[in-house]
């Protein structure tokens, strides 16, 4: 079974994919295809599909054509290693002020959310470290060897 996220673009899907794959490591453009017959969403060639990867995850893009006026509400959540990385992506994708949740809507109508990975998330998974909480600061301490 293969499950793939769909992103719906208002326009210029190819430009959007070029930007996304340039900004996000582990990304690549795949294929783009036009529907060559007239559709309710637009004339022949105006409706497009694409396959691409963002952060090693497969996506399909759909540019619905000039007659599709629905709001499809596509979104992507990116887990960032640092706040600087999240800020860089916010600016590159949104060019404006983020909303109250820190997300931005890009020029193609895709909503982007950014989560900064807490250092504590890695500490708990390490066999060599155990978290010690001191207020909001998380420090790693080596575990004592078992006797």
TrEMBL record:
Region of interest (Disordered), residue spans: 122-147
Database matches in InterPro entries: Glyas_Bleomycin-R_OHBP_Dase, PhnB-like
Domain PhnB-like: 2-113
Protein's name in the database: 3-demethylubiquinone-9 3-methyltransferase (Glyoxalase superfamily)
Source species: Rhizobium miluonense
């Amino acid at each position: 079974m293969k499950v793939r996220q769909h992103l719906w673009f208002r326009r210029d899907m190819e430009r959007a994919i070029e930007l996304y794959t340039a900004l996000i490591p582990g990304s690549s453009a795949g294929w783009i295809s036009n529907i060559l017959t007239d559709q309710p969403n637009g004339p022949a060639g105006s409706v497009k599909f694409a396959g691409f990867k963002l952060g090693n995850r497969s996506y399909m893009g759909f540019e619905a054509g000039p007659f599709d006026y629905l709001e499809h509400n596509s979104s992507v959540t990116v887990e960032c290693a640092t706040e600087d990385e999240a800020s860089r992506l916010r600016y590159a994708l949104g060019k404006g002020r983020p909303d109250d949740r820190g997300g931005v809507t890009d020029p193609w109508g895709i909503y982007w959310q950014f989560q900064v990975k807490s250092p504590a998330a890695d500490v708990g998974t390490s066999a060599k470290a155990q978290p010690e909480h001191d207020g909001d600061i998380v420090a790693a301490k080596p575990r004592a060897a078992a006797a």
